[in-house]
Amino acid sequence: MNKAKRTAVIAGNWKMNKTPAETTALINEMKPLVAGADCKVVLCVPAIDIPAAVEAAKGSNIEIGAENVHFKDSGAYTGEIAANMLVEAGVKYVVIGHSERRQYFGETDQTVNLRTLAAVKAGLTAIVCVGETLEQRELGYTETLLKFQTKMALTNVSAEDLKNIIIAYEPVWAIGTGVTATAEQADEGNGFVREAIAEVYGKDVAETVTVQYGGSMNAKNADELVAKVNVDGGLIGGASLKAEDFSVIVKAASK
Ligand code: PGA
After folding, report:
1. For 209-252, what is each residue's pLDDT tens digit?
2. Which residues pair with 65 in a beta bridge?
3. Among 63, 67, 70, 98, which one carries the catalytic annotation?
4. What gap in Å lies between CA 4 and CA 200, rounded to an integer?
5. What number does the ligand 1 atom closest to the CA of 178 have?
6. What mean pLDDT do residues 82-87 have?
7. How far apart (Å, rounded) are the C-alpha atoms in residues 119 and 105?
8. Index of the ligand 1 atom closest to the CA of residue 214
9. Strand pairing report for 125-130 and 93-96
10. Is 70 part of the annotated catalytic residue set?
């Protein structure tokens, strides 16, 4: 396993937090703290905040992401946003299949796959989330489920397009709960994801794919998590809303 073949990405997922004005203020606070990072720094923000975020991040090493994308190019899909709209607004990344969308908004493995295909076709980098619930873990299904979700999300994705895909392993029981997976559990989960990719695309390709960990990653535990061989950065919820904490995580991934 060779970590040097992969880029570490620290991505904030702001979820439904921050107004446009608050977005400008928070990014201005973050910019000097994350300047010169030796990893990619991304902030995925609510759609309404995208113009403010892109403007505030100009000239810095912060790239902006969205939190969802629709799979059609255009049409009668009230409330949805197409990939080309995001691209034109200056968005580079998009979170797809977050467990909150799977849980509250009817997202399925199939729609996750369709959104992923639409994102990469438009030139976005997709951050595709997979993860088991506590019940699934306790029943012993973690490996089966992570491999299934990963392969379903990547259906019809070419090896070439895989360059624009990041998988985020986010155990559902660790999201927003303050309960972090141990570094060993994170490494194991990320390893299952990588094995699934290897089973479809081969080991060499799998070694180049960035696999993040997400779920209560914070300024205190980031060092230990990102040090693991299979953990190539993180998807950060709560701690990405605080400039200082987020910058500590970025520094941990830069070592
Ligand atoms: P959390 O969220 O860091 O607040 O647990 C992570 C995520 O949902 O991406």
Report:
1. 999 999 999 999 999 999 999 999 999 999 999 999 999 999 99
2. 44, 93
3. 98
4. 22
5. 5
6. 98
7. 19
8. 6
9. parallel
10. no
Cα-to-centroid distance, 177 and ligand 1 (Å) = 9
Q: Would residue 132 show up in a list of annotated catalytic residues for this protein? A: no
User: Following CA atoms 14, 133, 148, 154 in sequence, which dihedral angle do they give, to the nearest 10 degrees?
Assistant: 0
What are the structure tokens assigned to 176, written together?
């927003």
The Cα 26–Cα 37 span in angstroms is 18
Q: Is the pLDDT of residue 39 over 90?
A: yes
Give the predicted TM-score (pTM) of the model.
0.97
Sequence-distant (6+) residues with CB within 8 A of 216 are 174, 175, 176, 177, 178, 179, 180, 237, 238
Q: Which residue has its alpha carbon closest to ligand 1 atom 3?
A: 237
Does 175 sit in the ligand 1 pocket, CB within 6 Å? Answer: yes
The full DSSP string for 57-116 is HTTSSEEEEES---SSSSSS-TT---HHHHHHTT--EEEES-HHHHHHS---HHHHHHHH
- Rounded to whole angstroms, the Cα distance separating 162 from 210 reads 10
Amino acid at 119: A
In the prediction, which pLDDT does 1 show?
Answer: 58
Residue 174 CA: which ligand 1 atom is closest?
A: 5
Could you give phi then psi for residue 60, rounded to 5 degrees? Answer: -110, 180
What CA–CA distance (Å, rounded) separates 234 from 236?
Answer: 6
Q: Which residues contact 89 (CB under 8 A, 6 or more apart)?
A: 50, 51, 54
pLDDT digits (tens, 9 = 90+) for 176-212: 888 889 999 999 999 999 999 999 999 999 999 999 9
- Residues forming a β-bridge with 236: 12
